[in-house]
Specification:
The chain has 10 helices and 13 strands. The protein is an alpha/beta fold. The protein has a 5-stranded mixed sheet with strand order 2-1-3-10-4, with helices on both faces. Strands 7-6-8-5-9 form a 5-stranded mixed sheet, with helices on both faces. Helix 1 (about 15-30) links the parallel strand 1 and strand 2.
Length: about 300
């Protein structure tokens, strides 16, 4: 295998995204000590726009400029959070996933300045989040709390919390660890309390399809269990064809005995309707599991629920 002398890595320019790139660079340095890596940071529409994402192409707003740099030959490798990559349409033509890194924590975290847990928050507590998934689940489990639309990277949100714009935040555990701020976590919410987004805690490495040298060089970073989980999750989301205002959550688990399971939910934005499905693959391939769970939710009325939400 011919290993490239230089690999240019493109990513969003947020602090968290750049920290994620450093993880990739460190793992590549162990694999290929002679290969030099360079970072190509780009500003994305999703990072610049702080309003409703549905007004700027939804989640594709976080990947469009990164994909463009990769396809233009300005970079050789793109690093994405899987949860930001749209699954209702294929990857941009000419690109492919080369690897999924080992999954980090999938859970959400409550950040409260006084260290309160979710169940300890007083009525009327203002929680900053613009995630329709989080809003719907909080509406179902803690309707006495108030969700305040809140966008921006994690550092910016923490600064707004410190300034008193809200009383608490919901952020990803993995993200807070990546920016070196696990100290602010006051409560970790398990998936039974706050079901995570599809692709939670996973970094994807994307290359041009014809760049076999880079694909081969980074392929060894692929984690087999994570690959199976993400294949199931993304097929599930693809079959559902949800949009950016659809409160959809779910996660697959690759078990030690080789089995794969997938739990998923679809909510109404007010949390009053919750559709659930949980299946085990056994010998089924991951894509078939994802399809099966999506079909189970469609049989419960997920299509009408999703299509009835404005976007």
């Amino acid at each position: 295998m011919s290993v490239p002398e230089l690999i240019r890595i493109v990513s969003r320019d947020s602090p968290m995204a750049l920290a994620q790139v450093e993880r990739v660079r460190a793992e590549l340095a162990v694999l290929h000590p002679a290969t030099v890596t360079e970072v190509v940071p780009v500003s994305t529409t999703g990072d610049r726009w702080l309003g409703d994402l549905s007004q700027v192409e939804g989640k594709g707003a976080f990947t469009k400029e990164v994909d463009a740099a990769l396809l233009a030959g300005e970079a050789d490798l793109a690093v994405h959070c899987v949860k930001d990559i749209p699954a209702d349409r294929p990857l941009p033509a000419g690109t492919t996933f080369a690897a999924f890194l080992k999954r980090d924590d999938i859970r959400d975290a409550l950040v409260h300045p006084e260290g309160l847990t979710l169940d300890q928050l007083p009525d009327g507590t203002r929680i900053g989040t613009s995630s329709v998934r989080r809003v719907a689940q909080l509406a179902a489990s803690h309707p006495q709390l108030e969700c305040v639309p809140f966008r921006g990277n994690a550092n910016r949100r923490l600064a707004k919390l410190a300034a008193g714009e809200v009383d608490a935040l919901l952020l990803a555990v993995a993200g807070l660890h990546r920016i070196g701020r696990p100290d602010v976590i006051s409560d970790v919410l398990g998936p039974e309390v706050m079901c995570p987004p599809i692709g939670a805690g996973v970094l994807a490495l994307q290359c041009r399809e014809d760049d076999t040298a880079t694909i081969d060089a980074v392929g060894a970073l692929n984690h087999p269990g994570t690959y199976r989980e993400i294949t199931a999750e993304r097929m599930f989301l693809h079959v559902l064809q949800g949009h950016c205002n659809s409160p959809i959550a779910g996660y697959a688990t690759a078990h030690r005995n080789g089995d794969l399971s997938l739990r998923a939910c679809v909510f109404t934005p007010d949390g009053k309707t919750v559709l659930n499905a949980h299946e085990w693959a056994g010998p089924l391939d991951p894509a078939t599991l994802g399809t099966s769970v999506a079909v189970a939710l469609l049989r419960q009325g997920a299509r009408d629920l999703i299509d009835g939400i404005a976007h």
